[in-house]
Amino acid sequence: MLEKLFEIKQHNTSVRRELVAGLTNFMTISYIIFVQPSFLSAAGMNPGAVMVATCVSSAIATFAMAFLTNYPVVLAPGMGLNAYFAFEICGSSGLPWQEALGIVFIAGLLFLILSFVGIREAIMNALPTSLQNAIAIGIGLFIAFIGLQMSGIITKDPATFITRGELDSKHILLSLFGIAVILGLIARKVKGAILFGILIAAAANLIFGFVSYEGIAALPPDPTPTLFKLRFPNIFAKLELIPVLFVFFAIDMFDSIGTLTAIGYRAQLMEEGKLAKARRALMVDAASTVGGACLGTSTVTCYIESATGIAEGGRTGLTAVFTGIFMLLALFFIPLIKVIGGGYPINPIIAPALIVVGGLMLRNITQIDWEDITESIPAFLTMLMMPLSFSITDGIGFGIISLAFLKLVTGRSKEIHPIIYYFALFFVACYIGGL
């Protein structure tokens, strides 16, 4: 049955490998189980209910991705958009969280319509090969940068913006230990190297008392305080909400396109520069946002951390199925999961995996034509802007704008799809408008 559903042999993998990949994915994204309630509680939402909504929406979305596309892609409430939801929309703007969920629902519905008619897929397929590879590399740098921040190796500095942390601090030493373990195991070609690295770092975390043990199991929280509590604001009466809807729309669209492109290259799912089941994948992403809003959480989207499972050999939807199962089981083992995913923004257990996987994603850099300035500069800006702006969308935006400009001024405008020019104007308008 598993072979028929997921074509395991055809993808040169095994059930064990997919299980290890799924568990690795789960451990890498487990921080969202605790971060999402923390963020959304600032908007007045019940943290226990948000935790349930986070796990359930992630599991359902990930199952849908598995069975409809057979891709090893994990979905969960997106970082960044949850902060925008809680602190900007509900905090600064004072919008009730119920109406903010209504806006997320409407944005998800728009994503779904555009995905159904193929517009999002057309955008994804219109990206030239150099930019697609740059997106994959940029996301690798982004993942590594997140890991460096989560480890404490890179920290804030008032003069230089970022700087090196104190390398003799406990959490950095634990992170460096985790990196050494994972790299050593990978160098020795040990299967499940990243998973073992996470588990060994978690054990060290407990042994040296960096985190307290609070037990193994507990009953899940009550989901009803946020379940189907969304309300639809009158956008036409409150015109200031239209830019809010637009922000949710734009960020989720380009984040999901960028993430799926990067994962497609990392998992060798691209066929002639295209993701064969891109439309289905994008529809799942869009529908997941709609479902998440109903359950009581902000935008649910594809996670770049899916690359950790792919690095462990995950190649099919079975990886996603296992991750989804672990997300549901997590509701009953919150005290235990907290040992691994509880720390944020500092988490020396997950950080080493992100740093190593980010490095592994840079191999596509040889696929970029560095001799052609109309290809190399847009690729460079895409790779650079993703980690520095902390945004996949901004990386794609700078890449598309520079690509369109350079092709035009060199008289080579016909080398790229016309839709690139439309979206170059789209991004220029966004930046001029302050979005």
Unreliable spans = none
Structural class: mainly alpha
Radius of gyration: 21 Å
Query: Please, how many helices?
Result: 19
- Give the helices and strands as they follow along the chain: HHHHEHHHHEEHHHEEHEHHHHHHH
Keyphrases for this structure?
single chain, about 425 residues, mainly alpha, two-stranded antiparallel sheet, about 65% helix, about 5% strand, globular
Overall description:
With 435 residues, the chain is mainly alpha-helical. Helices cover 65% and strands 4% of the residues. It has 19 helices and six strands. The strands form three sheets. A two-stranded antiparallel ribbon has the order 1-6. The chain has a two-stranded antiparallel ribbon with strand order 2-3. Helix 4 (47-69) packs antiparallel against helix 14 (317-330), helix 8 (129-151) crosses helix 11 (241-266) and helix 9 (170-187) packs across helix 16 (351-360). It is globular and about 65 Å long.
Summarize the structure.
The protein has 19 helices and 6 strands.
Give the helices and strands, then pairings.
Blueprint: H1 2-6, H2 15-29, H3 31-41, H4 47-69, E1 75-77, H5 81-92, H6 97-116, H7 119-126, H8 129-151, E2 154-157, E3 161-164, H9 170-187, H10 193-207, H11 241-266, E4 270-271, E5 274-275, H12 278-295, E6 300-302, H13 306-311, H14 317-330, H15 334-341, H16 351-360, H17 373-389, H18 392-409, H19 418-432
Antiparallel strand pairs: 1-6, 2-3, 4-5
Helix pairs in contact: 2-14, 3-4, 3-5, 4-12, 4-14, 6-11, 6-12, 7-11, 8-11, 8-16, 8-17, 8-18, 9-10, 9-16, 11-12, 17-18, 18-19
